[in-house]
């Protein structure tokens, strides 16, 4: 489970709008090596604060500090569906069109096949994104409240 702390901004039935309190969900940016820096690059291109809609089975209140999480497998499955499937459709379209095309125009047919694969990949992404938006396995969820009285020691770099 990938977890991060967030503050609840708004509450609705079964869901909440939260804003992360930590700079990165993986907490690697606070380690001795400084992490990968991906969050810092993302902050350059983000003009407004990050707010996310998450599932709220606990019934949190506005202002609560909570821990949100998303299943490890959800990130991998989502990435595969968003990147791998459309890319494979483009390649398969190009290869199939080139295989069945007349020898004289095989390049033009390959381009047309790749374009067809691209259109099919776009349709796949639209279908998958609608399905994933309704699937709780792909949604971040509030796991628990942050205990304000809990003191946690972190290793400091020397």
The CATH architecture of the largest domain can be named as: Beta Barrel
Quickly count the helices.
3
Query: What CATH first level of the largest domain would be assigned?
Result: Mainly Beta
Task: Report how far the terminal alpha carbons are from each other.
Answer: 29 Å
The amount of helix comes to 40-55%
Order of helices and strands: EEHEEHHE
Kindly give the count of domains.
Answer: 2
CATH superfamily of the largest domain: Nucleic acid-binding proteins
- Fraction in beta strands: 15-25%
Per CATH, what is the topology of the largest domain?
OB fold (Dihydrolipoamide Acetyltransferase, E2P)
Low-pLDDT runs: none
Helix-strand category: alpha+beta
Task: Give a description of the structure.
This protein has 158 residues and is an alpha+beta fold. It has two domains: 2-71 and 137-145, OB fold (Dihydrolipoamide Acetyltransferase, E2P), CATH 2.40.50.140; 74-134. The chain has three helices and five strands; from the N terminus they run ββαββααβ. The chain has helices at residues 38-44, 72-100, 106-134; strands at residues 2-12, 15-20, 52-55, 65-70, 141-145. Strands 3-2-1-4-5 form a five-stranded antiparallel sheet. Strand 1 (2-12) and strand 2 form a beta hairpin. Helix 2 (72-100) runs antiparallel to helix 3 (106-134). The longest helix is centred in the middle third of the chain and has 29 residues, at 72-100. The radius of gyration is 22 Å and the shape is elongated. The two termini are 29 Å apart. The relative contact order is 0.18. The model has no long low-confidence stretch (mean pLDDT 81).
